[in-house]
Design goal:
The chain is mostly helical. Helix content is about 55%, strand content about 5%. The chain has a domain of about 350 residues: Cytochrome Bc1 Complex, Chain C (Up-down Bundle), CATH 1.20.810. The strands form 4 sheets. The protein has a 3-stranded antiparallel β-sheet. A two-stranded antiparallel ribbon has the order 2-3. Strands 5-6 form a two-stranded antiparallel sheet. Strand 5 and strand 6 form a beta hairpin. The radius of gyration is 29 Å and the shape is globular. The protein binds protoporphyrin IX containing FE (HEM) (2 copies). The site of one protoporphyrin IX containing FE has 27 residues, from helix 3, helix 4, helix 5, helix 6 and helix 9. It comes from Micromonospora gifhornensis.
Length: about 550
C-alpha cells in the first residue's frame, strides 16, 4: 500500500476542519473573534477587577494546599521563635507555617491579600466609572445589578478570608460580626448560634468560613462574573460619542488579534504589579498579632479598607437604645442601625439606582453612548455626595489612630465625624453641581470662540486680544456639534420662580441624545464598526 506523505503545513487547517465537522464551532468562533470593542482607558478598570480575581483564584488554590481550617488546639513548634511553645488553633499554626516554612508561602499569602485589596479597589473604581458616565442606563440595568451583587459578594469573600488565619485581628473581626448578628431584633440570637454552632467563638466557625471562602463564594463570583461578561458581550460595550460613533454602532478594534493581545499583555502587567507588591510590601503580618484570645483586643485594630466604613458608622452611632414593650420586651441595640440597617439601605440604593434615575428623568430609551460627567450635573453631584459619605465613614473607621497620631481628642474626632457626615455630603453636592455648570460654560465658550492659542495680538486701536483658533468643522473628523445642557436665560422672570430657583442649580433643558464636547478624539483610521439593533419598544 502506498503511504500518504505527511504534510506538516496543512495540519492546522486539517485539524480545524476535523474539529468543526464534529462540534460546528467555526461560525460562533468567527463571531467571537470579530467582535468589536471600543477603546478607552476607563474601560480597563473592569479588566483590572477581572485580572486580580484570576490572581486571587491562583494564589488561593496554592494556599488551600497548606492551610488547615481547624480550631483544634496545637502547640506551635515552627520556625518563628517568639511563638514557639504557644498554644494556638491549627488554623493559626498553619498560617504561620505558610508564612515561614512553606517554600514561596509568604509571597503567595501576601499576593493573595494584595490582590484582594486591588480587586475590591478596582471594582469600586469601575463602578464609579459606570455610574458617572451613565453606562448603567437601559439596556444595561441588569449588568449594573449583577455588578452591585459582585461588590457585596466580594465584600463577603474578603471578610471570610480575613477571618481564616485566626490571629488576634481576625478574631476581633469575627467578634464584631457576632455582635452585629446578635443586634438583629427577634432572630439575632438564633442567627448567631446557628452560624457559630452555639456560643461565640465555638469550635467550628473557621471550617465553615473555609468552605464559604474557597468554594461557595468563589463559585458564586465565577458564575456572576461569567454572566456579567456575557452580557457585556451580548449587549455590546458602550462608547464615547464622537464622529462616526452613534447610538446604533460600536467603533473600535476587533477582538482578534489586536484587542486579545493587548488584553493578554495587560493581564501580565496586573499580575506583575501584584507579584511585586506581594514580594516587596508586607501585609497582614499575623505573627505579630498572636493567636486569637477573646479577652485580648488591642487598640488600632483595623479591618481591610473596604470594611472600614462599617467600623466608622459604628463609631459614630450615638448610644440610642430602643425598648419595645411587647411580651417580655425587645431591645434594639444602637449597633443594629449602623451595621444592619445602613448596609441594607446601601444595598437597595445600589441595586435600584438605574430604575430610580430613569423614572425621575422619564427616560426609557436605550443608550449606547456614554455621557461626560459634567453634562449630567445632578448625577455627578449625587455620586460625589455618596463618595464623601463613604470617605467620612472610612476615615472614622481609623479615628483612634488619627486621634493618637495627631494628638486630637477621640471624642472630638467622633463629633467631627458626626457633624461631617451630615454637613459635608450636601456641600459636596452643591460644589460639584456648580463645577459641572462651570465646565459646561467653558465648553460652550470653546465652541463659540475656539481654543485659546496663547498668542496675543495688538489691534490698530491699541487693544490687546488673544487669538482663538476655531474648532475644525467638517473636514476629516466631521462636525463637532455641541448638545450639552443649557442654563436658562430668563431665570428671574415673574411667574417662573420655580424654574428660576431650580435653574440656579439645575440646567432646565433635557440633554440631547449625544452630548459631544470639544476634545473628543477623532475616530482612529483603522477602526472597525459593528451595528447594534435597538431593543426599544413602546416607551421610547
Ligand atoms: C468582580 C467584579 C467585576 C468585574 C470582574 C467586572 C468586569 C467588567 C468588564 C471586564 C467590563 C467591560 C469593560 C469595562 O467597561 O470596564 C464590565 C462592564 C460593565 N460593568 Fe463590570 N465588573 C465587575 C463589577 C461591576 C460592578 C460593581 C458594577 C456596577 C455596580 C458593574 C457594572 C458594569 C456595567 C454596567 C458594565 C457595562 C459597561 C459598558 O458597556 O459601558 N461591574 N465589567
Ligand atoms: C474574591 C475572592 C477572594 C478574596 C477577596 C479573598 C481574600 C482573602 C483574604 C483577605 C485572606 C487573608 C489573607 C491573609 O492571611 O493575609 C484570604 C485567605 C485565604 N484565602 Fe482567599 N480570597 C478570595 C478567593 C480565594 C479562593 C478562590 C481561594 C481558594 C480556592 C482562597 C483561599 C484562601 C485561603 C486558603 C486563605 C487562608 C490562608 C492564609 O490566610 O494564609 N481565597 N483570602
Amino acid at each position: 500500500m502506498k503511504r500518504r506523505k505527511f504534510d506538516m503545513a496543512a495540519m492546522p487547517a486539517k485539524t480545524g476542519r476535523a474539529v468543526d465537522e464534529r462540534f460546528q464551532v467555526a461560525t460562533p468562533l468567527r463571531r467571537l473573534l470579530n467582535k468589536v470593542f471600543p477603546d478607552h482607558w476607563s474601560f480597563l478598570l473592569g479588566e483590572i477587577a477581572l485580572f486580580s480575581f484570576i490572581v486571587l483564584l491562583l494564589t488561593g488554590v496554592f494556599l488551600t494546599f497548606f492551610f488547615e481550617p481547624a480550631m483544634t488546639e496545637v502547640i506551635y513548634n515552627g520556625s518563628y521563635a517568639p511563638l514557639r511553645g504557644t498554644p494556638m488553633s491549627a488554623a493559626y499554626a498553619s498560617t504561620l507555617d505558610i508564612s515561614f516554612d512553606v517554600r514561596g508561602g509568604l509571597i503567595m499569602r501576601q499576593m493573595h491579600h494584595w490582590s484582594a485589596l486591588l480587586f475590591m479597589a478596582a471594582i469600586v473604581v469601575h463602578m464609579l466609572r459606570v455610574f458617572f458616565t451613565g453606562a448603567f442606563r437601559k439596556p444595561r440595568e441588569t449588568n449594573w445589578i449583577i455588578g452591585s451583587l459582585l461588590f457585596w459578594v466580594g465584600f463577603l469573600a474578603g471578610f471570610t478570608g480575613y477571618s481564616l488565619p485566626d490571629d488576634g485581628l481576625s478574631g476581633t473581626g469575627l467578634r464584631i460580626a457576632s455582635a452585629i448578628m446578635l443586634s438583629i431584633p427577634v432572630i439575632g440570637s438564633w442567627v448567631t448560634s446557628s452560624v457559630f454552632n452555639g456560643e461565640f467563638p465555638g469550635t467550628i466557625i473557621i471550617s465553615r468560613f473555609f468552605i464559604a471562602h474557597v468554594l461557595l463564594i468563589p463559585g458564586l463570583l465565577v458564575a456572576l462574573i461569567s454572566v456579567h461578561l456575557g452580557l457585556v458581550f451580548k449587549q455590546k460595550h458602550t462608547q464615547w460619542p464622537g464622529p462616526g460613533r452613534t447610538n446604533g454602532n460600536v467603533v473600535g478594534e476587533r477582538m482578534f488579534p489586536r484587542y486579545a493581545i493587548k488584553q493578554g499583555g495587560f493581564f501580565m502587567v496586573v499580575f506583575g504589579v501584584i507579584a511585586l507588591m506581594g514580594g516587596l510590601f508586607q501585609i497582614n503580618p499575623v505573627w505579630l498579632f498572636g493567636p486569637y484570645e477573646a479577652w485580648v483586643v488591642s487598640a488600632a485594630s483595623q479591618p481591610d479598607w473596604y470594611v472600614m466604613f462599617l467600623d466608622g458608622s459604628t463609631r459614630l452611632m450615638p448610644d440610642w437604645e430602643i425598648f419595645i414593650p411587647i411580651g417580655d420586651g425587645y431591645v434594639i441595640p444602637p449597633l443594629f442601625w449602623p451595621t444592619v440597617v445602613l448596609p441594607g439601605i446601601l444595598v437597595m440604593l445600589s441595586l435600584f439606582y438605574p430604575f430610580m434615575e430613569a423614572r425621575y428623568l422619564k427616560d426609557y430609551r436605550s443608550h449606547n453612548l456614554l455621557q461626560r460627567p459634567r453634562d449630567v450635573p445632578f448625577r455627578t453631584a449625587l455620586g460625589m455626595m455618596a463618595i464623601t459619605f463613604y470617605v467620612i465613614l472610612t476615615l472614622t473607621g481609623a479615628n483612634d489612630v488619627i486621634a493618637d497620631k495627631f494628638h486630637i481628642s477621640l471624642n472630638a474626632m467622633t463629633w467631627a465625624g458626626r457633624i461631617g457626615l451630615l454637613v459635608l455630603p450636601p456641600v459636596a453636592y452643591y460644589l460639584t453641581y456648580r463645577i459641572c455648570l462651570g465646565l459646561q460654560q467653558h465648553d460652550r465658550e470653546v465652541l463659540a470662540h475656539g481654543v485659546e492659542t496663547g498668542i496675543i495680538r495688538r489691534l490698530p486701536d491699541g487693544r490687546f486680544v488673544e487669538v482663538h483658533q476655531p474648532l475644525s468643522s467638517g473636514g476629516e473628523h466631521g462636525e463637532l456639534p455641541y448638545a450639552g445642557w443649557v442654563v436658562p436665560k430668563k431665570m428671574n422672570r415673574l411667574g417662573a420662580l420655580g424654574p428660576a430657583i431650580r435653574g440656579f442649580f439645575y440646567p432646565i433643558e433635557k440633554p440631547a441624545e449625544a452630548p459631544v464636547s470639544p476634545g473628543h478624539p477623532p475616530v482612529e483610521p483603522r477602526a472597525e464598526r459593528e451595528e447594534i439593533g435597538s431593543g426599544d419598544s413602546r416607551r421610547s
